[in-house]
């Protein structure tokens, strides 16, 4: 019998900005193709143009939610849970701790639940006390009630064992796809759109929210006096005081380029021609943007938070988190360096390996009573 799986906790696929979304877009088509699974990814209606669709064999189902940063994920996850219960699915795969609150309900109705812990979202500065409490509760219930738990870094694996005594988690990394670049003329067109020249700009990619530390990068760039452009790829899902202030500050600075959200060929083209990649985050799970930068062999400068250190880059790649002067010094020293081969690092982040490991977790869950 073909096993059926419903996925919740993501805004949707394809081409919806976000680390969890990128993860799901890469993983589930492979699982369908390699193991003939019946997989449905639930999406949030404000972020996708469809009610029902299919993407590379993966069924897509959009459900309503509110566009409120605190309530959006829990309410959508609750609706998605009712949908999973009604559909009689074998397995529910839940992503991110904001959706962890619904796991006891799913288990009550006899569902096998796989939970993937992507990030300690309650560390993000944007959340208030109530939201942080809910996120911590989501993490606690996910660890207590999930049939199987997947973590994406050894740091997270050790932490879940220390905090909750969950010693049976499965370490399965995030993945990165090999670079797929268009022909050179199209790359040139994408660069021209933003008035960029090859190897003449620094790039940072991420959502415009406090935990990504882009304000620290702007300050460091100002302190450095570097003439190469700084390109910020991304935006915010909802306008916030932080995102509004960040964009205004960027627009007032010389040589800072705001591209908005990019995907596909355009994103890869802008990535591939950069001089240096910077990730100034205060909080991450396992940063997909960093893995993508590594796939393009870009020299990387990243904050020294545990999630970034878990990638095990050379020590000289890390700056003190939140320290704009330290980052400025590293920018001055780091620009103009040759491309880097990360082949030994990237072999651990192969989607074919990740899909096989995930399928094995599904099998373990099904075999449990």
The CATH superfamily of the largest domain appears as: Glycogen Phosphorylase B
CATH class of the largest domain: Alpha Beta
User: What CATH architecture of the largest domain would you give?
Assistant: 3-Layer(aba) Sandwich
Number of domains: 2
What is the straight-line distance between the termini?
A: 18 Å
* Helicity, as a percent range: 40-55%
Largest beta sheet: strand ordering = 3-4-2-1-5-6-7-8
Number of helices: 14
Mean pLDDT: 92
Which runs of at least 5 residues are low in confidence (pLDDT < 50)?
none
Shape field = globular
Tell me the structural class. alpha/beta
Number of strands: 14
Organism: Photobacterium iliopiscarium
Domain Glycosyl transferase family: 198-329
Protein name: Phosphonate ABC transporter substrate-binding protein
Pfam families: Glyco_transf_4 (PF13439), Glycos_transf_1 (PF00534)
Can you give me a brief rundown of this structure?
Helices cover 41% and strands 17% of the residues. With 369 residues, the chain is an alpha/beta fold. Residues 198-329 form the Glycosyl transferase family domain.
